[in-house]
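Figure-free illustration: sequence to structure, shown twice.
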Amino acid sequence: MKAQAPPVLGSGAPRPAGERAGDTPGLVSVAVPVPLHQALVYRVPEDLAGRVRVGARVRVSVGRRRLTGVVLDFPQAAPEGVRLRDLDAVLDREPVLDEDLLRLAAFVADYYLAPIGEVVRGMLPADLPPWGDRKVWLTDAGALSQPRDDAEAALVEALRDGGRMSLADLDRALGRQLTHGGHDLTDAVDRLLADGRLASGESRRKSGVRYVSAVELTPGDVEKRRQQAGRSAKGRAVVDLLARLGRPATVEEVTAEIDCTAAVVRRLVKLGALRGFTQVERLSLDRHMLEERRPPRPFELRPDQASAVAELTAAVRRGGFSPFLLTGITGSGKTEVYLRAAEATLEEGRTALILVPEIALVPALARTVEARFGGRLAILHSNLASRERHQEWERIRRGEARVVLGPRSALFAPLSRLGLVVVDEEQDSSYKQDLLQPRYHARDLALVRAQRAEATALLVSATPSLESRHNVDRGRLGSLALTARAGQGELPEGILVDLRESGGKRRPGEVQFSDRLLDEIQRALDADEQVILLRNRRGYSPMLLCRACGEDFRCDQCGLPRTYHRREGALLCHYCGSRRPVPARCPSCEEEALEAMGAGTERVEERFSELFPGVPLEVLDRDTVRRGGGAASVLERFGRGEARVLIGTQMVSKGHHFPEVGLAAVLSADTYLGFPDFRAVERTYNLLVQLAGRAGRGERAGRVVIQTYHPQHYAIRAALAHDDDAFAAEEMRFRRVFHYPPFTRMAQILVRDKERGKAEAAMRQVAQAVLAHRHAGTVRVSGPAPAPFERLRDRWRFQLLLRSASAAKLHELLREVVPENPPAEMVVDVDPQQLL
């Protein structure tokens, strides 16, 4: 890969997003989703001149394919030696990505060495319908009323002839006429829709966005608006309703509440008492809520909370980029701090973005945030149905939603006037996109986006990442700390169980329920408390083994044992998804000697029900989340007390607030410790602390049981003693000695191929180029070597790890040594979080 020019092509300065192209721009650069690190240049044909905007989507031809790309710039000259093609179509009249997001896309492409077209595609909802798909038609009022200007007259005439027409068809028929007359088609359509003279509906695409007519009081004294309504009791009631609501309302909402016709509302718009407009229909967020929404109860902040809120509020009001790290033990009220900061942000006329690491955490927080901000909240994540996702995205783009909540992909929400960016549980590795391009880290990009928007950035964690701790020490992040806990105010009692000495009841290969753990569970149940049990493996057991011949049913494509899922009667590979049915006897030796080795959540559930029959329980893991209702329904039942016990993977440890939980236990704390990854110890510590934080959040003290074969490990000792400083000091010492992040910057080069020899040869070729590079003396090289999981998804994998104290030199080396057309599939991962 040779050194790349900035992804935005063209020698002239980029036009502001939203600005129309000038007098027939001849060339346009387009980010197309292909594995190229530069945009492609096209000609703008005469019939599309004047319609192309920076940040809008266009359809172009690439080879024999027709693809959708995004306009980046209008270059002054074409690349040498390239035969240019014409744009095929313009899909949007308004930008789908504003200037700030386009500049962020350029940064992502440059820093993570990702193709600019794939970066831009990842910023937009999949299958976002083109502007032109929306259809409109004349109502009776529109057909009979007199047009107010030339634009309305042209629209009415076109619709009388064409009936139901898409905006794209209207644009083709009237676009030039309206533009030359100083009118805008969208504005004219919106005026007629607000007056009830046009109706609008979805196109045939199921993903279409729906628009509704809405009204709000015009500025001024409410009594004067009542007088404008005249003798109409219904009209005055409409004015009173909107005054009471203090917000806009849809026409349907108003007519249903007042029991009047839409004509009453249209009359008030005509009299000037109301302003009419169209807005995106807001879909119900009920399925994101764990219980009925209710206004938050006001309460007085503790002194440490009040101090943090005051500092954040001052930063928001001051403006400019202000990054902070908010730390505090689990249950210390960090959420309340950043929600109050968000309130201050909205009061300043700016918007707020709140990120969480996983979709499973959205429901609980959505309930809290929606109670605080109502219809100003939008939720964005990939599990939304297509139509829901497009509706929420459109509400954000139009400024109807001013607070956005979601996982890492919500980072690219089209918010304007961004004032606050919150990254909750900032230490979580889920913020790293490590499967698809671009392989970005949402926490780091959140800081970049906040910096460019001159906004306040707040990273939040009970167990901050080592990178964030290091940035506090270097003065790059301001430090805010909460030192007390809500509720009974005490951290849970830590109980260590040494599995080497425990005499608990155990089946061969099964995770142990020690005698001490059984006693603690019984104590919790007798006290009418709830229990959370963590086993960080799903399925029934990690392996099905033949005791006679050693057959372990390895995946043909990955070379790893398949996980036994007893409920489904299947052996599943959790890496490539392949499955096979469970045989009655070993297919290799024909013996009936098959035995499940180890335990996943299914087996823990089965064993618990044997030990405590009749105790209602729920299971939370990826398998249960895929069933009807998902994680929200499981958490809702547990939150209502319908289940006394919650068994699950690491999903049970993150961010949940259940005041009745008195006991949390990890059945084996050693799951991560043995992984060949320098972050394994940090992940283990974070998991244990987060799990402990689920207990004792109400008025009664809690307990946490940690079962382990490594009772002297510093991470386990620190988690039990709630000694965060001791863990950080020891882990930082290890990282510094062995030159790992945060003291260096790291990149992984991974080669994959169906042929092992081909993958290894390609990796060695890159390694030789690295060692011969002029910056080789400043870069530590590990490898080339087989990846810890050498074969996955029918691909052999080799890797090279590069570490350097200089991020600039590391990036320069990567750009120059990675070939543009490698002989095997090659992945460059900057700041990797997983090395398996």
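We now fold a second protein in the same way, so the two outputs can be compared directly.
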Amino acid sequence: MPTLMPRSKKLLLCFISLIVIFFAGAVIDLACGPEPDPYDYYVSFFRNNVQKNDGYRSFYFNGYLFLNDQTEQTSESYINAKEWAKYIGYDVKAEDVGYIFYGLDRKTDSIYFRTHSNSEKLLPDSLRENQFIKALDKNKSALAYFRMIKETEPFVTRSFDEWKVAPKNGSAYHAFALACLKQGQKQKDRFLKLRYFYQAQRLLRYGGYPQEASDVYDKYIKEFPSASHIKGWALSIQAGAEQYCGHKEKAALLFAQVFANYPERRVQAYRDYHAIKVPAENLIKMASGKREKAFIYAINGFHNPHIGLASLKKVYNTDPKSELVSLLLVREINKIEEGYLTPRINGSKYYGSIGYWNHAQYDSVKDNFVTYIPKLRAFCDQIAKQGQYAEPALGNLASAYLSWIQGNTKKGFESIDSLKSKKIGTKLYDQEQFIRLLLLSQSITKLDDSTENVLLPSLTWLDKKVKSEIHLKKPFQDGWGDYDFKYFAPSSRDFYIKVLAPIYLKQQDTAKAALCILRGEKTIIPTGEWDVNKPYGFDMPAFWQNYLRPVHIRTIVGWQKGRNKSPYMRLLMSEINKKMMYSIDHIWGTACLREHKYNTAVKMFSRIPHVKKPKKKDDYWSEVYAFLPVDPFVESLNDYPQRYLHIDKPGYTQLTFAKTMARLQVKVKSDPRNSAKYYFKIATGLYNISYHGPAWYFSSYRWAAADVGRKPIYYYDTDYIQTRSAEKYYLKARQLSSDLEFKARCTFMAAKCRQKRVVHPPYPDYYDYSNEKELDKQYKIYDRKVDLYQEKFQRNIYFTDLQQNYSTTKFYKLAVNECSYLRDFLSPEPIKTPTKLRVIVIDKNTSH
């Protein structure tokens, strides 16, 4: 009897739609590559940092996030420490200052700055030897400044929400601010004078006196002759004060100025600017100079996640030499890569997973991009022709790349060949080489020895670039920083997997396609990290695990062992080392198990060093794949719960399983009197290494609940999902036996195998949850299909055979008692699943 799990229909279809979106795409996309992260979720061959200044990394395009990076790209604390080190002299380093400013615990900090006199003996050695401390002892004015700001520190270290309202002890803020202002007026040292004024402004602003803070800025800081970044921080506070006083347009303009001139406050200024929501046209009237106007247009352009030339053209027409032109142009290219190129390469139908929530289907979005790309390319040609931008070659490269995306190879080569006589920077040169590689691959109709040699120089260049990035230190502790700094590795992976491999697959050269996929993934996961936590075979690309057959692997191994490899093949296979060969042997042996070539499987598994697997598995889904011991030759009436051996028993491995199956293949011929028994054991072994058995990992590298009842997609699914060979051998065993009880058991096991051929109907392909009428219609259609599925599942031809020919056996009575489907078959009316409750059918006879 099926077990039903009730849940609302809307929730069901939401869940189903997510599954459909996740699994949408071509085989090449499903079969390889790690899961995407926020910095690497779309195919990109155009670098987002081609401009000279890397201080805008937070504003590179990222459709998943409000900002590509939430942190400031320049450290305010380091800038402050650097200014102090230069001011204090005595060869003091910024690191010495930074440690004293930001690295001391409260106790040590208090000992030095609040009780300095006669406290030298209390200081730890690390402070006594600090060069900044030594220099500070010689500058009494600087030390006095420090002691004063340490007194004010508790007032300026508040939580974010606390800044929304004036503090209750505003008078204390005011008193400290006036003290700082007085010291600033008295101070002759210009470095300290500016800082006293800044502290006064800051305390007045945070203390709830925005107008007085604004007056301090206008009178003492605004025109103060200094290049110190303190002026930028004061400008940021002034912008906040103007906003607090209701002067929104002036505040937004000041935040735009902070954004433009002070990279250590750029992200925060960007957030504050957009929080005010002032029309850009109003600010342009107030702006002074083309640079300031360009930044206003750019800030608004960075905020737009959708395609559009408006901001880019305004920046270019206002200040064509600005690097903002490059930033906005590359953002538009990246949007095309995300919204058009990636779905086209991956074969994705729906856009729900890439940020275009206002579009339901692929075609509507695709049409927008098809219309937009020529417009952007025309603008790129304009940049290249007019030569006003600092590096007009960017226009040629962008135009060539867009031509490649459109499939116009001739136009692409024309754009990029026009650069031959021009001198360009390193970043643009690298971009040119990659675009040439893309155009060359697009111009090739068939990959053979000749055309592979055409690609070789570009691939060799790319290989060197990838290797130069391998040892880059991760800039962030969260682990995502690699993709923000390593430009060639992700693009190289995508080229091999998304561009080169499909060409080989189209030529039906599966072996070389597999090498491209392996090499592509190796660019992201270096050799030393390839198999840290996974046993052999489980560390290989999914394409290798699911699509390669013994004939393909034999070809690859032959190439690897060959002495006369071409330079192209040496490059393609250069990452395959000795340890990886063990993984290749494991996949070869597994593929032989799938094709029932047991002697070859024994040979492959015997070449792999023994790896002792843990006997106890605490986490079934852990990456180490520590499986419980099993005996795959013990049949079970029900698939669930699975039967495992006691943890102290060794169980079978793929090697011992292959040896046993090889012996059984010989036995059925050498011992014909007992051949029925041998065929039954072979059938049971095949069943138990299928999806439905406890030893599924002997024939598959993945197990997913969604696999039950699906259509075959891999070459081995006829056995892994549908258990056809097991059914054949159970019937063969029944045919060769005269024992009625044994024949009944064979018939029932054949019935279990036959059930696995019934394909579960696909879930409703409908996503407009606001349309209740259409939603109910789709759901009712799905209900009827599920009823038909249940009926097919129930009306098993072997159940009829059991009832007619074996109803008198003891096994029949046992089967009726154990199997709900057999009881349903014998009942006078078929079991219908209630519409309101149906979500997923969990059958103890067919699933884990």
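Summary for the second example: The first strand starts at residue 3 and ends at 4.
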